[in-house]
Amino acid sequence: MASSSLRYRYNPLHQDIICAETAINDLAATVDSLGASRAMITCGPTILSACDVVPRVQEALGSRYVGTYSGVAPHSPVDTVEAGAAMAQETQPDIFISVGGGSTHDTTKAMAVLLAEGGDIRDYAIIFEPPDKITVPPTPSPKLPILSVPTTMGCAELAVAGAA
Q: Matching Gene3D superfamilies, A to Z (predicted)?
């Protein structure tokens, strides 16, 4: 039986979702197509130390790579968002590459908001007051684009020899 890979591209408004075996290799072209030239990677310490995906992303970016913030923690604590935004202020990226799972992608989005809007990240919390009042703070400043490289570290999809 011939092997086949899942490949698709989906372009909803303000997003471009690419699923392909070559997606990491094509990151430089994607960064270039967005008019960016200084890419900062965000990830957690486990993904950085446990596999080769972050070095592959760094290599694919080539001279566009300006640094890695690897302090992402589960559930995006405020101090990790602030630390990542501080690193971004120092390295001056014009695009983020988020490598990891949900917390990494959420942290990166919060960093982009904090970098663009300033102040305290708590100022941008959406507030719900029962029964039906929702307050959405304005965030009008342009944000850096984010390219996400989703991963999983759960290993649930792996078969382990000798496992029951």
A: 3.40.50.1970
